[in-house]
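Quick one: co-fold with NAP.
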Amino acid sequence: MSQPIQTRALIIGTGFSGLGMGIELQRRGVDFLILEKADDIGGTWRDNTYPGCACDIPSHMYSFSFEPKPDWNYMWSFQPEILDYLRGVADKYGLRRYVRFGEHVARAQWEDTENRWHVVTKAGQEYVAQFLISGAGALHIPAIPEFEGLAEFLDAGGAAFHSAQWDHNVEIAGKRVAVIGTGASAIQIVPEIVGEVAQLQLYQRTPAWVMPRPNNAIPAGLQKVFATIPGTRALLRALIYWIHESVGFAMTRQPALLKLGELLGRWNIRMHVRDRELRRRLRPHYRAGCKRILNSDTYYRGVADPKTELITERIVRITPRGIRTADGVERDVDVIVFATGFHVSDSYTYVDILGADGEDLVDRWNREGVQAHRGITVADVPNLFFLLGPNTGLGHNSVVFMIESQIRYVAQAIAAVDKAGMQAIAPTRTAQDSFNAELQHELERTVWSTGGCSSWYLDDHGKNRALWSGMTWQYWLATRSLKLREYRFSGRR
Ligand code: NAP
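Sure, here it is.
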């Protein structure tokens, strides 16, 4: 095994979080490295290459505030343009030289005596760092339901893959394709592939609320206006921000207001689906926003296409020839696409993190529920930081805004350690507990708890461990400055 590699701060991941954190540490002159499991940068926007992959938050908002791009081609950009943007940012700041590619973190252990993290990757390389910052997020481990019979289907020549691991070597043109799931990824895939395939079987367990959204290309003239007239792009960003915040207000404070959105969702179905029975099956029976509100002008057209069959019977098993549902019907399939989401509430179990005294964070979170102080730091676990950690996801606005708030907070914590002449910092139990008690109390009245659905936002105990409980400006306020009284330093230098 090669020698351990020393650095001051170790960042995991090269998505928006990891790259943004790298830029901030570079600006502050803190020595750092970034570990990336893949062979390129980009996180979500590198991994998800399924047909139609796009962001459902407008790019003028879903981008770094300090790196505006006036010439986005679409209001809601497609994956290649977002990945290009990230690559451009990485190149501009010379970040690639800090990245160790092909390094998948397996285990991280805090050594009390050294005040250092020892991080070991699956390849066996050890890194030693004072600070460990996870920019891995929670939506990166594909969840494939354990249907019986998948292995036999594959042995018999069928193809199957997850939406986030799209196999571009598999030909879908002229094939019978089954898409399982009707969430954010599926509604982008369906309209994109329906023209190509011979038959599209769409397996829906719970219908989504899908709002209309025209996504025409932004004319070159308008792009020029954003590039040349000062303030126009910032004005657009502000407009997008506040429109989304108003939806956040409804979701977190007045869920009844979301009934207005439901009118729009129903109208969207009526506009594109003639068949009354099909409309009925597409109509959700929970409050809009309880699951992520989706938007598309093309999804329902794809579902109403004569080549599409919407199947709402439960899948009982996969057979060598296709998929069998609870009504006993077996449909022949050539390719199965699992658009079935990600491991979220258990995403943290895939890395062993051992904190002070060797305490296993997974054990603690299994016992107490996944929680952190202000979604970033963890009581009694020194110098560990999460970007987009517990309860900092969003159902209504750009997570890049959250990430930037967190990056600033982490940088402040590192500076505070140096200023105090110490080596380590961790929030107190009291601070973390009181933060989470208030957070969970606020979450009780949100649409995610009251909306009458089950979603990946909730853990096995029905607690929301995924989303922030209020507006994003409130999170900005909550993380604007690190409150020293909430923290304890250790390890005098
Ligand atoms: P998702 O929204 O969680 O959807 C998963 C779908 O699979 C749901 O319809 C779910 O049904 C279904 N499903 C899961 N297990 C199943 C089973 N055993 N049998 C039948 N159906 C099953 O996952 P996703 O579409 O990958 O999106 C995940 C998240 O990624 C989104 O919420 C969003 O935050 C993000 N995303 C964002 C964008 C974007 O534009 N920004 C695009 C894609 C994804 P139930 O609803 O009944 O559970």
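If it helps, The CA atoms of residues 191 and 302 lie 4 Å apart.
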